[in-house]
Amino acid sequence: MRSRQRGTDARPAGTRKDAWRGSLRLSVFYQSACRAKPLGPRAGSSQTSKKKKSTSLAAAGRRAGPPPRRTQQLPVLPIAVALVLLAIAIAVVIAYRSASGGPTAGGKVSGIPCDTGEHVATGDHHYHAYLDILYEGTEVSVPAQIGIPSDAPQPCFYWLHTHDTTGVIHIEAPAPDDHGFTLGQFFDIWGQKLSSKQVATFKTDSTHQMKIWVDGQPYTGNPRDIVLKAHEQVVIEIGPPFTDPPPTFTFPSGL
Prior knowledge:
The protein is an alpha+beta fold. It contains 5 helices and 11 strands; from the N terminus they run ααααββββββαβββββ.
């Protein structure tokens, strides 16, 4: 029996067959280890996506909605400042009127009221005086309607007033004053200044002096204290030049 030699045909242990088997095992191990998992949504991914989508839609809805209405508020500071300035202006006007003694819509001035009618009846204290003002030799007109305010609630007459520009002062009172009505009271009703240095808007200075005449006689006292008497003539001059003797006035018949 012819023995078969395995030296040429037999596969040595650990050669190709073993290598093939080893490679087979390695390939199977590799495939099992590296086999990709089937594609598909992860657990919970669908719900998360829906939540994100709903959240984004809600946010978009909020953004797309109309903006909240803002309540318009008045500027407090400018209004407060305006009110303060208005109060200051009113106070200044009141102080000016009080200082000047001018009539305030028929209110009492220097103790003299504004009555609804003239006191010209029998028994009333009714007479006239005259005022002449000269500045640098030129006669200054005394306004009409002094003491007859046009802004009073109803027409009225102060006891001292004028009707025209002649300079005639009408003194019409229900009774005589104990101390006599003065030129200072008339200027208070007029709303003008009167002192030893100023008459109406005219003032003395280094080049201008004041001279006062009462019935043609020099007067050196305070002009405010001159008591107005029937047909009395008061001349106040600021000069030079001065008129000496001062001009005289002839009262019309009936005054």
